[in-house]
Design a protein that fits this description.
By secondary structure, the protein is α+β, with helices and mostly antiparallel strands. The chain is built from eleven helices and eight strands. The protein is globular.
Length: 244
């Protein structure tokens, strides 16, 4: 199946709504949050595309001032979480005008690696009070929802010292690779958290939960912070196999 971000932006307008018995067929929605864009695609049981749309952060949401979806200052690379929320709002607004969303039976998706989301202690309450009568980005103000509104992303290279420290504590780069599958790299969430703890411990203390980008997307639909999975732990480099 084609990547959601490769779909033509006009595909929805070329696909008429189904009538008659077709309304009984279920739809399946998938989201793809990458570093520079967010895409949405809906397919039916036969994997025929019903709708496809993409929001490019730099051009569709220029108010956030990103380049390739990022804010870059030397080795530091971050991206605003609120940008991703507003991108989702735009996609949902577009799809709701083209597709009967009550026919969507399943929602899935994927998101960029090594992107962390730092939820505040008020975030759970804000998520639980989400209402469809308002856009998500209006209900989740950045300074109240996240303790780190502009967290590091895949391109961040400012944590070399923390990556080396992590490897040292585990027993060196080879032992780290043997036990976790790969040596420590700057962009890993684990070393990014180490840096925040060392440079801004007050941020970590004020944080209720830290999610991966994919769990962040799930949280917006669940109305609560999604639990971490083993895949999250592996992706964030917190899953270390014990020897013996």
């Amino acid at each position: 199946m084609a990547s959601v971000t490769d779909m033509p932006r006009t595909v929805a307008s070329s696909v008429p709504r189904d009538h008659g018995q077709a309304h009984e067929k279920p739809y399946f929605l998938s989201l793809d949050l990458s570093s520079d864009k967010m895409g949405l695609i809906i397919v039916d049981e036969s994997l025929d595309v019903i709708f496809g749309e993409c929001v490019k952060f730099d051009t569709d949401l220029p108010e956030y001032g990103t380049q390739n979806g990022c804010h870059t200052d030397g080795e530091v690379s971050t991206s605003p979480i609120h940008l991703h929320v507003k991108a989702l709002d735009l996609l949902l607004q577009k799809v709701s005008s083209q597709v009967e969303l009550k026919r969507v039976k399943c929602i899935g998706g994927s998101a960029q690696q090594h992107k962390s989301v730092w939820w505040s202690k008020a975030a759970s309450t804000l998520l639980s009070r989400l209402t469809p009568s308002k856009p998500l980005h209006e209900q989740l103000p950045p300074e109240q929802t996240w303790t780190l509104p502009n967290p590091p992303n895949f391109y961040d290279m400012s944590t070399d010292a923390q990556a080396q420290s992590l490897e040292w504590h585990i027993g060196g780069s080879e032992e780290t690779a043997r036990r976790s599958g790969v040596r420590a790299f700057c962009r890993f969430t684990a070393v990014q958290i180490m840096k925040v703890k060392q440079t801004s411990p007050n941020i970590l203390e004020a944080t209720d939960r830290i999610s991966s980008a994919s769990s962040f997307l799930s949280s917006l639909f669940l109305g609560g912070i999604a639990p971490l999975s083993k895949s999250d732990a592996a992706n964030m480099r917190f899953l270390i196999h014990r020897s013996g």
